[in-house]
């Protein structure tokens, strides 16, 4: 029993060992079978991949070859087209060259024909010259024969015949007639100029009104940018309210401390400027306050206009004027012409017209009334169509002015209508005196330069003129002419032509004197 118990564990171990060996062998067999299958499948997959790659490579090869053939065909087409274009251009150049050659050949033929005609013409000219020379010789001989015959018949010498001929020519000379005419005109002008100068100087000496060339205010000073912002208002509502209430344009830019007022009507411009000044002084700026101040200032302005008109009427001693005419004259206080206050200018013209009329033996009160009202049309020329003379004449007629002398002077003081009374040229002269005196009017530098350039351009627009220069701020132009081309009578005529063109083409205050200088220089050298 003991032996059997010892043998049993050994057998058990052997059995276990045999089982392990058998299991390992079995596992090896299974793994080998599985590995063989996987290797087979791998070989098949590899062969399939190789076959697929070969097919794709063949397809790519065919595609590449096809694309290469297409590009080659396209390139051949482009080359063929370029060759065709080059051939066409070459053909055009050949045609152009052929045409040019034909043209050159035709021109050469024409030149040859012209040369032939010129040669023939030269022969004819030479023949004509010979004939003329022969005729000249024959004419000289015939002239000598005539002289000899005339001397025999008349019993006069050659010098005596020349004197007689020159005397007849001198009598009939147009030059002498022009000179005589010019002399008569100069004597008449000298007499008239002397008398007119006496009257003008006396009028100026007797009336020398104080002249204040005041300009209408166009800008308002603002103490600070904060106040400027308050005047502008939120989103510009205060500025818009002010523009609506006054009818002006308010210009606000980066200029510190200034707001500009822009408007054609001087009354509205003055109202807006004063409203801005009151708003700055008050400090309360809003639409309701703006409308309130505008109403107050407009009322005050109407009173000031009426007062200015009444004061001017009293100063000018004008009676029987309609209230509407007085109001219109008051508006002229806010109107300027070249910097000259139009109302003061009207008063000056009134008194100068009276003085001239008194010197000429006419009614001074009528002349004063004509001069006082002559520019009344400027008070409403921006509201009514037409020039201020016609507007003023119609306005005066509408409001009770019945004097033909006054109406004609108002409508014709710029020669727009024909003068029917002597008071119209008197007003024209007084208007020129008031506007032309030194300091009365001002011009901007740009307008001044343009006027001088236009004046010199008109003066030099003649073949006789060598140079021209403007003097005395454009009130005189001196024209220098070529003495060899221009005679004395032509110089007088040229001065008149230049003056007429200046009067027709230019606008200027006063008058412009045109002086034509004809200088003859004789030079010799002593050695």
Explained architecture:
With 527 residues, this protein is mainly alpha-helical. Among the domains are: 1-137; 445-518, GMP Synthetase, Chain A, domain 3 (2-Layer Sandwich), CATH 3.30.300. The chain is built from 15 helices and 8 strands. It has helices at residues 2-154, 158-171, 174-206, 225-232, 237-246, 266-282, 287-316, 323-331, 342-359, 364-373, 388-398, 404-412, 423-436, 445-459, 488-505; strands at residues 219-221, 249-251, 258-262, 336-337, 340-341, 465-471, 476-481, 513-518. It has a 3-stranded antiparallel sheet with strand order 1-3-2, with helices on one face. A 3-stranded mixed sheet has the order 6-7-8. Strands 4-5 form a two-stranded antiparallel sheet. A hairpin with a 2-residue loop joins strand 4 and strand 5 (340-341). Helix 10 packs across helix 12 and helix 11 (388-398) packs antiparallel against helix 12. The longest helix is centred in the first third of the chain and has 153 residues, at 2-154. The relative contact order is 0.04. The model is unreliable at 207-217 (pLDDT under 50).
